[in-house]
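WARN retry 2 of 3 for item q-0093 after timeout on previous attempt; input resubmitted unchanged.
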Amino acid sequence: MGLYQRLTAGTTGLAYLGDLTGAARGWRRKCGAVGGYLGGSLMLSQEDWTRAELTEFYNLNVGCRLVETVYGMGAWEGYVEEMRLIQDGAEMAISLKPAVFHNRVTAVYSVGPTRANTGWAENTSSSDEFGECNVIKTLGGAVAAAAVGERDKMLIEGGWPRSRITGGDAREGEERVKPDELRVAVAGYWETLLWRYMETTTTAAASSVLGTLIAASEFVVSKRIETNADSVSADADPVPRRIGDLVKEMVLLGDTSGHVWQGGVYGGRGFVYEEAPTDWTYQLMGEHLLDRAGGEAVLELVEPGFLLYNPAAATGWAKAGTATDWDDPRMRYVDTVEFMEGREGGELRMGYLGVEPGAEIIARRIQRGVQR
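OK item q-0093 returned
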């Protein structure tokens, strides 16, 4: 597990020279058929690092890129979105969530029956370092000068990611025996699609609209967008919409034939949009997840958006006249996977389309380094 500089500084420079794998306690991360690499978390402890090392990590690494590799292959990629440092019972937090961090702001307000906006104001030094995070503030009944003042206040307050004391029960003179903790929350680059807005409406084929939306992102690039010729409209006028919200809507629309489509941001921050598969990819054999050839799956490398075949399911078989694996009651479409590191190697939790997440847990029994 490697930690790299923020993307605004390039893609190769390391932010932390060592391998975080051994120190990253409780590592877990989630992926979705809609979204791709989503969120994750880990904890760093004073039992492994010194207080000075934990404090330095907290001060320097918000926004840095985290990459997990397994057997030399990318398994997950995202950035440090938020950290909480707990020392002597006091808690401090720093975050890149748009609610508290925004370096480009505009305010929308009423002028009689019409709406006006202040225009954008930007902290360019911050956006050069962390990327451009936009927020639109909606005001009711404000005059132009008040709207500009509110916009500028928001930019001052949120223009840089700031460390804030968020809680704690430390008292002067108390002895603290609990080691320091640094709780790190990471987000996939899908989340940065919420950092920018569309302000015009685009109507075209679904695949074309998605290409336009992704091109407006700062960090996400189009990797593979399969053709979906259905006409759709990404409506962002007169009300601006976040790019991520529009992309999610477009993916969930599927197509006019009733097929499920999936789309998300994966390795290299590449956006992939495709029709969900019609043949099964993995099969469930007791506590084991196997591929079509019968080999045991590497759980860290399992990505969502596949059909899971359970030959032991007591649900009968496909009805006469049906055509694809989707019609077989022994199949389930897996739309979320969550990998959790553990003492015995880890486990994979799979969520099914139409079923509450966590319906199935596969515990990996094979230790690292043993050939599957």
